[in-house]
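Listing S7. Sequence submitted for prediction.
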Amino acid sequence: MTTDAARAAILEGRTSLGIEFGSTRIKACLVGPDPTEVLAVGSHEWENEFVDRRWTYSLESVWSGLQAAYADLVADLRRRHDVVPETFGAIGVSAMMHGYLAFDADGELLVPFRTWRNTSTGPASAELSERFGLNIPLRWSIAHLHQAVLDEEPHVPEIASVTTLAGYVHWKLTGRNVLGVGDASGMCPIDSATNDYDATLIAAYDELVASRAPGLKVAELLPEVLPAGRVAGSLTEAGAALLDPTGALRAGIPFCPPEGDAGTGMVATNAVAPRTGNVSAGTSIFAMVVLEHPLANAHDELDLVTTPAGDPVAMVHCNNGASELAAWAGVFGRFAAAAGVELDGDAVFGALFREALEGEADAGGLLAYNQLAGEPIAGLEEGRPMVVRTPDSRLTLANLMRAQIYGVYGTLALGMRVLHDEGVGLDRMTAHGGIFRTAGVAQRFLAGALDAPVAVGETASEGGAWGIAVLAAYLAHTDEADLGTYLDQRVFAGAAIDVAEPDPTDVAGFAAYLDRYAAGLAAEAAAVAAL
């Protein structure tokens, strides 16, 4: 698209805006009439807080961060196209899934936002999993709600609504309390036949809490569920002022259903059809595999969620992703600066990742544990990041960095073993997230860890913000094609994809690493108990 054509599209509102609240960055991404063309981006860094032994973000930081990311996008539009937007064709909001935002009848937050990262819901998760006959993970909204019931928290009788972060932001911008089906599937189990909450399980929950929380009807608390392609409201005057305090943005812009980061990751990697899957790596790391048929058994390592269109998905979710790796990169970046060499973040990562290629296939006997927070799949209630080695291991920079990258994938690989044992078919695995920006390293190691081809596309680093922008753009094409067909024919038909085949040496090396990693989890547990 020429500069003049892009400017005309922006002025005429033939664009789609995607906003995603990630764990460490709030990103905004504007695409043109062709959603593969990114016209501008904006971002704002933020960080969760550990307050009263709970991971949280303040609502004030939600809005200040959103406004900062949007202002950064507008500044990028000025630089690139010399224009300030007054409208868009559609907007979509995405955010970290799960967690607990509970409001009273006046819309006031009853307790601080409890994010997906909290692992204090063990009794609730266990009771619900047994009652429902399927795994209800610690981070799911229904587990947070039920733990509050079990703990007899005083706010429970006042609850009028419960939602996710994406649902909350969408509600404030549009006035509608709705969720995309993918995000809703991380609140409470979904029946893919109806694209709504599972009515049988909803009834079972109400019966379970009838004596503990009289009058609580969970269906009345949860947001309305909408599949991809449905209009989910429009920007109100108050919402426009929240998003753009300068007053330039006009109300009336349609919104797609708000989605979770898992759903936008599936869209961003074209992994919404059966036998496709994706890995999303950031503060957390998770794999999504779209199922052809139900699993034979319930597994603690697997969540059953859905695509944004409502198709069933098996999810391996790990609370800890690349944060510890980033911390080590920060140490080496500071060392370079202290030695008189100034490097930006990408340069530091690039140098360390390329060095990792020189490491031994099994990381020379080193182990790196990335658990900053609790990790249910690994049986850890809290995290203690560690580097562990035996006296005969080979401590080199190359081995250390390979161990750190392997450590990002360690718990994920344990969960993927379960899917393999279930006989789940997988034709294509696509990866996205900032860790894949350095070409040929993290992607190659992931292929070795999964023993499967791993593809990375041009949008790998844009990730979910671009994915929700695509879902917003899909509103104009719902009558033409289902979501999978739209992605295949309109979005990814000409996409440049780089595929890394598993290297047998990497496969064997990672398998040896993973065996040591699994055995060494006892040391992690001991560190949690002792420190």
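Caption to Listing S7: primary sequence and predicted structure tokens for the chain studied. The chain has 17 helices and 22 strands. The first helix runs from residue 3 to 11.
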